[in-house]
Amino acid sequence: MKKTVLHKANTRGIANLGWLKSFHSFSFSHYYEPTRMGFGALRVLNDDAVAAGMGFGKHPHDNMEIISIPLAGDLEHRDSMGNVAVIQNGDIQVMSAGTGIYHSEYNKNKDSEVKFLQIWVYPDKKNVTPRYDQITLSVADRENKFEQILSPNPDDAGVWIHQQAWFHLAKFEAGTKQTYNFKKNGNGLYVFVLSGSVLADDQALDTRDGFGVWDTDSVTFTATSDAEFLLMEVPMYE
């Protein structure tokens, strides 16, 4: 029987450090909620806004797949692998932290904030060689359909990670209806609405709501207004 969990936007954890305002869909840093420790292999979904010229100083990660999706502004990335890059809305960035990396992320602009989603997924292989990648996506490829932006396969569309996970972005006009079919049996789907309103089967979702679905093989989405949303299909853990 299909199982679901609903996380309304106003129930997320909040961190306000002045230079950083972050909404946490799952427990993170000083926000701890034992019923919200992640969704299957999806461990972190942070909705971050960083003030002009500010950012996260050099810090370590290991054995985690880290995905950044910029929503507005310019995010400058530097890491111990020698990568220096700026990512913007339309890009997606991925790091396999593996045996360990250091990186920093700063708002490159001095007069406007940068907004991005920070997503962590548990890997299915530990202590891999660290790696970095980024690509630029085509917004046209998600107009009234699901644009694949991440998979387990380096030869497939989007970036890839060490996990049996698939991410899609969708930008639906009001009234658009499409069914998402799971890629792998036993996976769950976590939906995060970036803007607008949609129905996920019969569950109404509004901007910044999160909704998890599992023990099913498909979910039908109907846009009740113009809407943009992110789908994250991941393995489910007990």
UniProtKB/TrEMBL annotation:
Fe cation binds at H59, H61, H103, E105. InterPro entries: Pirin (IPR012093), Pirin_N_dom (IPR003829), Quercetinase_C (IPR041602), RmlC-like_jellyroll (IPR014710), RmlC_Cupin_sf (IPR011051). Transmembrane segments: none annotated. It holds the Pfam family Pirin. Its cofactor is Fe cation. It comes from the Bacteria. The keyword Coiled coil does not apply. Keywords: Iron, Metal-binding. Gene3D superfamilies: Jelly Rolls (2.60.120.10). Residues 13-121 form the Pirin N-terminal domain. Binds 1 Fe cation per subunit. One of its GO terms (molecular function) is metal ion binding. Residues 149-234 form the Quercetin 2,3-dioxygenase C-terminal cupin domain. Belongs to the pirin family. This is Pirin N-terminal domain-containing protein. It comes from Flexibacter flexilis DSM 6793.
